[in-house]
């Protein structure tokens, strides 16, 4: 998920309670479009909630608009990490990136970015430490924004055992990175929900597991066997947490 990219670049993000394996299946239906509407998530370290994430997807001319808002504060291995972020992405019908706008504060330092995909690559304008610069990220082929990475295996059919590769815009590092995803299989979570279990190599030296439903909704995500867990929650629960932690909300 996108907020993890600036939450703990030296570690990782999220985990899910181990699901019960379901009988093997060839694949899930290919995803035709992203799940529209608003989704809320809690971010927890060792079962203590330390942040939130909100994703809102709506139809837009020529594709979709994806808005992401997140905030978290935690300490891992002696390193403190505070991050508050607001992001907006415009994507094509196939969820490839068209343009973006980002406003984030990491450990007290603000950075603003905006840019678009061109024939030459991804053009970025960013302001950091009071200085504004332009940058061209040269890349060939499709580029995806962070919020749609977990949906990508379903866009490709979600065949268990398949390995996929894609290019993603890393908004904190301001570069395009390659990601490899492995489709582990189709599983059934406690309660009966059918999900696709995938892993990616987004975070070096740690496991990153994701469970996404057939509609493209991430239900849980995990790094390092549950050290940090991001889990779907209802809007009321998320808003209660934000009210109790106003410093995590973008002003």
How would you characterize this protein structure?
There is one protein chain. With 251 residues, the chain is mostly beta strands. It has one domain. It has three helices and 15 strands. The chain has a 15-stranded antiparallel beta sheet that branches. A hairpin with a 7-residue loop joins strand 12 (194-200) and strand 13 (208-212). The longest helix is centred in the last third of the chain and has 10 residues, at 235-244. It starts with a helix and ends in a 7-residue tail after the last helix. Residues 7-25 have low confidence and may be disordered.
Major β-sheet profile: 15 strands, antiparallel
Shape: globular
Measured distance between first and last alpha carbons: 22 Å
Share of residues in strands: over 45%
Whole-number count of domains: 1
Share of residues in helices: under 10%
The helix/strand class is mainly beta
Strand and helix layout:
Layout lengths: L3 H4 L12 E2 L15 E9 L2 E13 L2 E14 L2 E13 L5 E10 L2 E9 L3 E8 L2 E8 L13 H4 L7 E8 L4 E14 L5 E7 L7 E5 L5 E6 L4 E6 L1 H10 L7
Antiparallel strand pairs: 1-11, 2-3, 2-15, 3-4, 4-5, 5-6, 6-7, 7-8, 8-9, 10-11, 11-12, 12-13, 13-14, 14-15
Sum up the structure in keywords.
251 residues; 15-stranded antiparallel beta sheet; 7% helix
In short:
The protein has three helices and 15 strands. It has 251 residues and is mainly beta.
């Amino acid at each position: 998920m996108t907020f993890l990219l600036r939450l703990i670049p030296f570690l990782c993000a999220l985990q899910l309670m181990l699901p019960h394996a379901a009988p093997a299946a060839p694949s899930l239906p290919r995803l035709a479009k992203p799940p529209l509407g608003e989704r809320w998530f809690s971010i927890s370290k060792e079962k203590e909630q330390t942040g939130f994430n909100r994703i809102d997807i709506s139809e837009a001319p020529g594709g979709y608009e994806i808005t992401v808002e997140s905030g978290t504060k935690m300490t891992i291995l002696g390193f403190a990490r505070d991050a508050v972020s607001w992001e907006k992405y415009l994507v094509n019908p196939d969820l490839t990136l068209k343009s973006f706008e980002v406003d984030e504060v990491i450990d007290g330092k603000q950075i603003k970015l905006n840019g678009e995909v061109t024939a030459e690559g991804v053009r970025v304008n960013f302001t950091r430490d009071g200085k504004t610069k332009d940058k061209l990220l040269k890349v060939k082929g499709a580029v995806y924004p962070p919020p749609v990475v977990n949906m990508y295996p379903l866009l490709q059919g979600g065949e268990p055992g398949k390995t996929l590769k894609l290019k993603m815009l890393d908004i904190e590092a301001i570069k395009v990175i390659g990601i490899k995803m492995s489709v582990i299989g189709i599983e059934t979570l406690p309660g009966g929900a059918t999900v696709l279990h995938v892993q990616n190599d987004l975070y070096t030296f740690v496991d990153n597991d994701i469970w996404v439903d057939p509609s493209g909704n991430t239900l849980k995500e995990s790094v390092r066997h549950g050290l940090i867990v991001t889990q779907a929650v209802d809007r009321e629960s998320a808003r209660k947490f934000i009210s109790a932690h106003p410093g995590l909300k973008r002003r």
